């Protein structure tokens, strides 16, 4: 279990009105084959893609490593993504290489990943679908992974979408995007938030192609965890007038919860990296040309280590550019879409053990981090959504199971990201199998997320009576909190609680 959990951990580092969602234009809706064969060739804007049967659910078709943008290499390094179109066959039967994600943080030796194949050519996505049964046009869940914008990959085993696709009759998509200095370079002469632009192009690809996989382009819900959740929220503001998504799920991350990088701080990191690889040039243009010529493997190895807290936001993360990312969200309005937002009860159970610098911080720091980086931003984002008249739900995750506990830490409980194996049904089974309670909680969680995807406005209420969030009410959804039978006859661990029990230290929530 240790290696499996460790690989995932490093990949981690945020009275309603009924919304009338406009239909997707007909040009984006294609017809899928009437008789579906598992892994069959699917025509896409990227070219014909061949898949195969998923490993554990052989009736699910798995399509891996589909390019949605041209490889961002050579002259396309640090340029906005360019749509990939083609007619050549695509082999969608193997996971793509990991994103380049080394460097940027001090990490303790016992949580370092072993060497994994990585590539700057990473702009791909994966699709899981089971069109042989259920709805002919299924709701779609697009997952954005976390990792502090410096790590993570759609290839992580804990994000495998086959189980949710089979069990919940949805299409699941996971995406790669540029990370670290490749996605958020800080170069003052080019776009600053390339990783966000990558994500947007991936969602546009889903809109344009998902009907061919049995998905409904009118029901695309974006969900993410940590930096992935922050990304989802960034999209809700940056593309408020053209969101594509019909709803948003934000797990332990918001647009402002991790702070927002300033252009000055980002530029300083850019020139620090340039100095580290010998690009001492007289002009910005020459620095850029020199940096483009440095092999990616050399650049990532020589990045100076940056501790969290040394910059206003996440190092090599989203930068306030006034177009996609904003320095102040208080006077901005997100897309008029339903929102499900929340966090875990013990977020810091992971982060305080990741680096020597963090491990040396005083014990009182970690409850403060839990409150002001995760709990308060989740409450604030939920309150914003309510104030705009959007259907809103807020949750808090309490789950802790034998096969998701961190093996080298005495107690870690519901740590940052610990809900993901319940959502994807991917907890490791080598040493401990799922307990009955874990199975029930996982089934319930997947059902809830799918219910939101299928009907973002009413789905959660129909599913199990989830009440819309009221900041001063007893409407906080407590998941895996206490054994409580639901109407579906399982131990659902769903109970309502007062959000103020956790928000008392927040300035406003």
UniProtKB/TrEMBL annotation:
<keyword id="KW-0378">Hydrolase</keyword>
<feature type="signal peptide">
    <location>
        <begin position="1"/>
        <end position="20"/>
    </location>
</feature>
<dbReference type="Pfam" id="PF00135">
    <property type="entry name" value="COesterase"/>
</dbReference>
<feature type="domain" description="Carboxylesterase type B">
    <location>
        <begin position="372"/>
        <end position="484"/>
    </location>
</feature>
<dbReference type="GO" id="GO:0052689">
    <property type="term" value="F:carboxylic ester hydrolase activity"/>
</dbReference>
<dbReference type="InterPro" id="IPR029058">
    <property type="entry name" value="AB_hydrolase_fold"/>
</dbReference>
<protein>
    <recommendedName>
        <fullName>Carboxylesterase type B domain-containing protein</fullName>
    </recommendedName>
</protein>
<keyword id="KW-0732">Signal</keyword>
<dbReference type="InterPro" id="IPR050654">
    <property type="entry name" value="AChE-related_enzymes"/>
</dbReference>
<comment type="similarity">
    <text>Belongs to the type-B carboxylesterase/lipase family.</text>
</comment>
<dbReference type="InterPro" id="IPR002018">
    <property type="entry name" value="CarbesteraseB"/>
</dbReference>
<feature type="domain" description="Carboxylesterase type B">
    <location>
        <begin position="40"/>
        <end position="351"/>
    </location>
</feature>
